[in-house]
């Protein structure tokens, strides 16, 4: 194996090592982030949801239910307000990104498909009604005349073998052969 191949192998091995190290680092970061989110969730729940103590009398239970119902309504209103704010912000973001595209002069290109098109159709599509010239490419080809040789004249006099084959081929040819009794 040449020194160039060894260098390539070393570069590939190094690239693979770096890639695996990056993936491992990313995995540990994701685990840390998930653990931090869980701790944050527990803290939030401990702060906003104190442990429930059920009172003994019916009146105290009804009061507790009313308080919980009022809290649920407040949280629901807050959730709705947050959703509306998020939708509004998302719409603004989309509008701003569209304006940014417009200012840059860059537009998203649609995916192009291959289309078989003749030269005439292409010119008609590009130029519209201005297109009058017919681009028949075969019309501009030179006419080349063959010089008849003696050998070809002899062959033509004998008869063209293709003509014989065409006459005998297909159903018509078979019908003629059958009628002729061949």
Automatic annotation (TrEMBL):
Q: What Pfam family does this protein match (any one)? A: Troponin
Among InterPro entries, the record links this protein to: Troponin (IPR001978), Troponin_I (IPR050875), Troponin_sf (IPR038077)
Any GO BP = skeletal muscle contraction
What is the annotated quaternary arrangement, including any partners? Binds to actin and tropomyosin.
Give the function comment from the record: Troponin I is the inhibitory subunit of troponin, the thin filament regulatory complex which confers calcium-sensitivity to striated muscle actomyosin ATPase activity.
Say which family it is in: Belongs to the troponin I family.
User: What is the protein name given in its UniProt record?
Assistant: Troponin I, fast skeletal muscle
Origin organism of this chain? Answer: Ramphastos sulfuratus
Traced from the root, the source organism's taxonomic lineage reads: Eukaryota, Metazoa, Chordata, Craniata, Vertebrata
